[in-house]
Amino acid sequence: MALRGKIAAALDELGYIPNRAPDILSNATSRAVGVLLPSLTNQVFAEVLRGIESVTDAFGYQTMLAHYGYKPELEEERLESMLSWNIDGLILTERTHTARTLKMIEVAGIPVVELMDSQSPCLDIAVGFDNFEAARQMTAAIIARGHRHIAYLGARLDERTIIKQKGYEQAMLDANLTPYSVMVGAVLFLYVGY
């Protein structure tokens, strides 16, 4: 057995886990991508994270996850912590950020991918869809099936929710129907079932 193999076997037997900090400092890279999510209770973000990790894993990157509960100040703190680990890239799901968050991103000089919205102005790269048009088309499809009393239910008054609401309202107005929206500030738990 070659020396490298013997060393690897001994380290494995001891349960040794290498400290990545010196490697990060000497190579100026962490092989990690930061992901800032506003919610861990929304199933959409679980699926988004699964998709992200299918790509990062394939390219030998780790995913560093932080949750900020739609609170801009907490997003700042989480981002500062991630950047202190010298992440190689950043994935965001919101387009609205504080001035301090934007400054930290600018100074970091790393690639930034913004998800969930392809229409709003982005910092670097956008991957997503047109929330207004998606909501408008979905509502128009429901109207085309003969339904006339259609309500829009939204939780959290984040930017995407408001854009979707406007798409719904536009489809209702285009069909000469009265829009009806129910918006709540936050939902702690939502269960839809039989």
TrEMBL record:
Matching InterPro entries: HTH_LacI, Peripla_BP/Lac1_sug-bd_dom, Peripla_BP_I
Provenance organism: Enterobacter asburiae
UniProt xrefs under PANTHER family: HTH-TYPE TRANSCRIPTIONAL REGULATOR GNTR, LACI-RELATED TRANSCRIPTIONAL REPRESSOR
Gene: gntR_2
One term of GO molecular function: DNA-binding transcription factor activity
Top-level taxonomic group: Bacteria
Name under which the protein is recorded: LacI family transcriptional regulator
SUPFAM superfamilies: Periplasmic binding protein-like I
Lineage, highest ranks first: Bacteria, Pseudomonadati, Pseudomonadota, Gammaproteobacteria, Enterobacterales
Segments forming domain HTH lacI-type: 1-42
